[in-house]
Structure formats: structure tokens, C-alpha cells
Amino acid sequence: MPDNPEERLIVYGSLAPGGRNNFLFKGVEGTWHRCVITGHMGRWRGFKSFRFDPEGPDHQVWLLCSPALPGMFPDLDDFEGEEYRRVVIPARVGEQWVRAHIYEGRFSD
Questions:
Q1: How, if at all, do strands 96-105 and 8-11 pair?
Q2: Residue 39 contacts residue 59 (beta carbons within 8 Å)
Q3: How much is the CA Rg of the chain, to the nearest whole Å?
Q4: In total, how many domains does the chain have?
Q5: Which residues, 6 or more positions from 24, have their beta carbon under 8 angstroms from its beta carbon?
Q6: Structure pTM?
Q7: Cβ distance 61 to 37 under 8 Å?
Q8: How many CB atoms lie within 10 A of CB 106?
Q9: Phi, psi of 45 (to 5 degrees)
Q10: Phi and psi dihedrals of 18, rounded to 5?
Q11: DSSP assignment of 27-39, as one string?
Q12: 42 CB contacts (<8 Å, ≥6 apart)?
């Protein structure tokens, strides 16, 4: 798996396979992989929210690898809104580490 974070997106919650907003990836050519990320999972306004922390606990989530992602990011950024920001973090796919985009969000107080 080449290390090209621009063609990778980590998803959790409603964007993950089976989630209510996964339809946004309908027809997108790509491959889904289970992966592990470290950080803190919480909730914001009823939706899952994640914050990266290299010292945090592990979470199993999904990684989408697709050459279509760079063209989709502006629409996904709009969909996620100002409450979430897209950042690049490390993820473990099997025994391999890769860098990928993820939407970090706020947590409820």
C-alpha cells in the first residue's frame, strides 16, 4: 500500500460501512480496510467524534483508499461542517502503518 494520504480517509460513525451517511461513497471506486487509530472517541450533538492522541486508547475503524478522494474532500468538508476538521493521522492496517485523513470533531461537555 503506497503511502499517499491524499487517497485515504479514515471513517467512523455515520460515514462507516453500514452507517446512515455511507451513501456518500456510493459508486466510489476504492477498497475498504479495517484499521486501528489511537485517540479519544466521544460524542458531539448525537454524532461520534474523535480526537487523535498517540497516547490514547486504540479504536477499530474503517479506512477507505480511493483515487477519487482528493476530488471529494471539498464536498465532504462541507458535509462535516465547521464542527469537524480534516487532519492527517497515522493508522495501522494489519502490521503496516499509513497516514490518512480523518475528521476530528468536538466533544460534548
A1: parallel
A2: yes
A3: 13
A4: 1
A5: 15, 75, 76, 79
A6: 0.92
A7: yes
A8: 15
A9: 50, 40
A10: 90, -10
A11: T---EEEEEEEEE
A12: 48, 49, 50, 51, 107, 108
Q: What confidence tier does 1 reach under pLDDT thresholds 50, 70, 90?
A: low
CATH number of the domain enclosing 34: 3.10.490.10
Distance CA 25, CA 17 (A): 9
pLDDT in tens, 46-105: 888 999 999 999 999 999 999 999 999 999 999 999 889 999 999 999 999 999 999 998
Instruction: Render pLDDT for 5-17 as a digit per residue (tens, 0 to 9).
Output: 999 999 998 999 9
Instruction: Please identify which residue in the block is written with the cell numbers 486508547.
Output: 57
State the pLDDT at residue 17: 95
User: Could you list the residue range(s) of the whole structural domain that residue 52 is in?
Assistant: 5-105
- Looking at residue 51, its amino acid is R
Q: Residue range 20-44: average pLDDT?
A: 95
